[in-house]
Amino acid sequence: MEVHSVSARVNNRTAKYLLQERYTAYSTALVKDNMYYTRRPSPAVLPEQLTHRLQLLTGSSDRSIRLYNPAKASTSSIGSGLVQTYSAHGYEVLDISVTEDNARFASVGGDKQVFLWDVATARTLRRWSGHFGRVNCVGFGGEEGSVVFSVLEDSKDSVSSLHVLGYEIVTGSVDGKLRLYDLRMGMMYADTIGHPITSVQQTDDGNAVLVSTLDSFIRLMDKSNGQILQSYKGHINTEYRIRSCLGLADSIVISGSEEGKIYVWDLLEGKLAETLTAHDGKVASAVSCCSPRKEWASAGNDGKIPSSDFRDVDY
């Protein structure tokens, strides 16, 4: 898919960076602090890149994963800002998860494989197989990311999203069930949402879960009793897997939309705070937010990865 150079706008504010690929981007992850470069620099990394700065990992339909330096990006050149490419998947890459030290990441996709990567050298450290269908989500758990989770077997349909926090794993499934696995107690709890779930994320305090569904609603669910604490609407999500996220110390909710916009809500009040034009009418399928730096990035099927910040916005 050819990508045309178009300057992304953010409510009359130009996006800081605009990375461009030729293929649909399904997932994006923000690397908060690339200390791994200073420990084990790759030959492909230039000296001026050996600094602490935000970088982006993207997975796309061309079966590749790419690491970008947004500060080097250009709106007029496809692939500008590219630091490293990771190639091993046989089908599209559907999800990426990064360890807390940013030294490794895991990826999954349509080839039914789970890969563990070394970020600096672009080598695969481990490969796991055995899934009977495509793998939609992956996450790290345990001490220093010692455990990799991909799919749990209780769902009656495809698991679309998972999030690990401490000893608890939350999953969302196309069967409309939100499942909580308490590894410490060996228990599983399920809540019926009633619509296919596309995204889940636990709050930092572990008391609630943000749940996106295919009825164009995002719900904040109380983990202790399954009650809806708040809901968020205004975006369009009825056909595609769109992933939402929490940002700015869990004070805002961010989501893409099928018409290509990024929506931002106040977490507590549920009010729409801002609408960001990012993907030129194409599906904005995933968003990531780096709260300490107040920066966000999104991925979509137009091949663009716009990135900007919230520093001049008071929510």
Instruction: Output the helix-strand order.
Output: EEEEHEEEEEEEEEEEEEEEEEEEEEEEE
Contiguous runs where pLDDT drops below 50 for at least 5 residues: 1-15, 32-52
Into which percent range does the helicity of residues fall?
under 10%
Tally of strands: 28
Distance between the termini: 37 Å
Mean pLDDT across residues: 80
Share of β-strand residues = over 45%
Class from helix and strand fractions: mainly beta
Gyration radius over CA: 18 Å
Characterize the largest beta sheet: strand count, sense, and whether it forms a barrel. 4 strands, antiparallel
Using the alpha-carbon principal axes, give the shape: globular
- The number of helices is 1
| Order of strands in the sheet with most strands | 3-28-27-26
Write up what this structure looks like:
The protein is built from 1 helix and 28 strands. It is mostly beta strands and 315 residues long. The strands form 8 sheets. The protein has a 4-stranded antiparallel β-sheet, with no helix packed on it. A 4-stranded antiparallel β-sheet has the order 4-5-6-7, with no helix packed on it. It has a 4-stranded antiparallel β-sheet with strand order 8-9-10-11, with no helix packed on it. The radius of gyration is 18 Å and the shape is globular. 47% of the residues are buried. The model is unreliable at 1-15 and 32-52 (pLDDT under 50).
